[in-house]
Every structure is written in C-alpha cells, then in structure tokens.
Design brief:
The complex is a heterodimer of chains A (111) and B (225). With 111 residues, chain A is α+β, with helices and mostly antiparallel strands. Chain A is built from five helices and three strands, in the order H-H-E-H-H-E-E-H. In chain A, strands 1-3-2 form a three-stranded antiparallel β-sheet. In chain B, helix 2 packs across helix 3 and helix 4 packs antiparallel against helix 8. Classes of the chains: A alpha+beta (111), B mainly alpha (225).
Chain lengths: 111, 225
Amino acid sequence: MRAETLKGHLDALLLAVLAGGPRHGYAVIEELRSGSGGAFDLPKGTVYPALHRLEQAGLVRGTWSTESGRRRRTYQLTAAGRRRLGAERTTWTQFSAAMSAVLEARPWPAT
Amino acid sequence: MARDLIDAYLARLRAGLPDSRAAARILDEVADGLRTATEDHVLRGVEPARAAELAVAEFGEPGELAADFTTVLATAQAHRDALALLVTGPAIGGLWLASALLTWPAAPAAVGIGAVAAGVALATTVPRLVHGVAATGRLGRRLRTPPAAAVRTVSAAARTVVALDAALVVLALPVVVLFSPSAAAAALAAAAALLSLGRLVAAARVTRRLERFRARPTSTPTVAP
C-alpha cells in the first residue's frame, strides 16, 4: 500500500498500536507492519515525527530510558489518547461502512 | 562499516535540523531506531554491513525526515513563544495602564490617543497569540490550522509586540514623565518601560527564531477525514 494512501490515517494507526502497551519507535512501526500483514510498510523514519506530533497533542507520552548503554525513547497512550482512539474507531467504522455500501452496491438499472 | 553508514545517515539528518537540544534528542532517538533495525536484520541472518544498508534504506530520505521533524519543532517553539508573550502581557499592560490613569488628568488628549493606539494593537495581537497557542497545542487538531500557518501567525504577532513595546517606550514614557504630576506615575512608567524593553528584545528573538524555522524545508502533515 502506498505511503500517501496511509498518511492521513497514520496517527490513528499509531494510537491503536500503542493501545497494546508502551513501545519505542521502531517497535511501533514493526507492529504496524506485522499487524497489517505487511500491507502497511512505511519508511520507518516516518513514525518518529508522527509520534512527536502525537506527543505535542497530548495523545501520547514519551519517556527516556537507557538500555545496554543506549538511550531509548518509549511512548505510551495518555488518557486523552485513549479517548481519541475511541473516537477514531467510531469515525472509521461509520466511514468504512458508508464507503462499502456505496462501492459494493450493484449498479441501479438505467431508467 | 555498519556504524559508518548509520553515522552518515545521522549526519545528513542533523544537517537538515535546526540547531537545538531537541534536535540532539531526535538524533539519539533515530540512532536507536537505526541500530535496532540493523540488529533486527542481523538476527535474521543478514551480514552486518548489509543489515545497516537495509536499515538506512528502510528509514527513508534523511532530508524528508528532517523536514517532518522541523515542522514538529517549529510548532513546539511557536507554542512556547506565543504562550510566553501572552502570559507577560497582563503584568506589563497593567503597569502601563496604572501610569496612564495617573497621568490622565494632566494630559487627557495624549493619554487618550495613546490608549486608543495601544488598544488597537492589542486587539490585533492578543487574538493572534491566543489562536497561535491553541493551533500549536492540544487544540491544534480541532482547529485544523496547518502548522506553517500557525507559526506564521505567532511570528506576525511577535512583530506587532515589538512595534507596540517600541511605541510605548519611545512615545508613552516621555508623556508620563513630562506631564504626570505624581512621582508614582513616573516610577510605574519607568518600570513598565524596562519590562517592555525586555519583552521587545524577547519578541524580536521570537520573530528571528520562527523566521529561521520558516526558511527551512518543512512538511505538511495530512489530516484524516
């Protein structure tokens, strides 16, 4: 799937991945790839600015730790992030149901 | 070899980022991601040098990544700057107002003209700063203001603050000192002028800083329907 197709939905996907628990940037993008069966295989770098944007919006919280001498930043959902994810899920369900209803409808006979 | 490839990628990313502590933290984070990606490939049996090549390729163009990060950094900077200008407003404005009220009986025309001019400047600046704080903060998603437009708004507001503070120091301070019958008014105006000068310098720095961000390539994040 092209990155451009996915880009408008990236934030919701990242929130959904982080709903499974705290993760660092690389783990988030790997989870996104494996969770989509390889369909969402974005340039791995793109996830980092997106996570920073979500942090600015108060939807995730990032914390630094040191593992094996290496600084690592881990992200987790905030309460606002959980609420946003719920809203995104509702919007997506309505949107996809409406799209499916139109795209999969049989053509009406011409009058 | 693997380390050289990662270091070269980080150097190109560094070149595209504004010089700041936040940029250093970004480099640490991306370095960790690249090294984790390399280790991941090595665990799958790829030779280390090839693993680093794959990791670097998977992360995408460092210039594009720097542009995405610059947008995030510019937005965060504009938020802090707009908030600082907004928070200092009431204290400085209060001092000028108090000195103006004490000077009013002695020079009603000059104080009146000054008050109207300051009111007009505030009426254009305060809404811009409030919008800037909201658009670059947690309400940004609801307002749907593009980051570049929000940064522009804060930069424009900072320029108005510079003009307002300069006018207050150059025009209002002499009026109070010359016409006010009370020493208290002059003392209040002197204190207000000192604070205005400090804010003028800070607002000029804000403008320069945000203009530097705007001069760098930035990205426009896509918003979901």
